[in-house]
Known about the structure:
By secondary structure, the protein is an alpha/beta fold. The protein has a single domain, classed as Alpha/beta knot (3-Layer(aba) Sandwich). Helix content is 34%, strand content 18%. A seven-stranded mixed sheet has the order 1-4-3-2-6-5-7. Strand 3, helix 2 (54-60) and strand 4 form a beta-alpha-beta unit.
Amino acid sequence: MPENHNLQGLTSDLRIVLFQPDIPGNTGTILRLAACLGLAVDIIQPAGFRLDNKSLRRAGMDYLERAAMQLHDDWPAFEAWRKTEKRRLIVLTTKAERAYTEFHYQSGDCLLFGRESSGVPEFVHDVADQRLTIGMAQTGRSLNIAMSVAMTTGEAIRQTR
């Protein structure tokens, strides 16, 4: 059973999913964003840091206590939960053709973002219901994950509210 933190009072059924995040500051920022928008964040472990890390707290500030976070021990545990909940898996990746702005989001979608260091492994791509990308200038390799989460989640909220 996944560990739950503060899942009451959510304003949207969309979920932000972080696959084995590497950088505590980014995760803290994403948790703060989610707390402010009334969204839940699923974290698929192992993370590259302790979830009580000081950097995580610095980026999330006092919002961490209000963040709705669900921890999953590993990928199989998350997948079992997602299938039981009948939620679509939308993977954000630089290895997709379809733009995040050209997709029809639905309530309950899980928006999954990969590790900062290595993205999302192929076995995650293989089960995705959709793979989306954020278009960038050719000189850009990738955006900061917290920026990607904010952009994509904003579009998903706009469409589902």
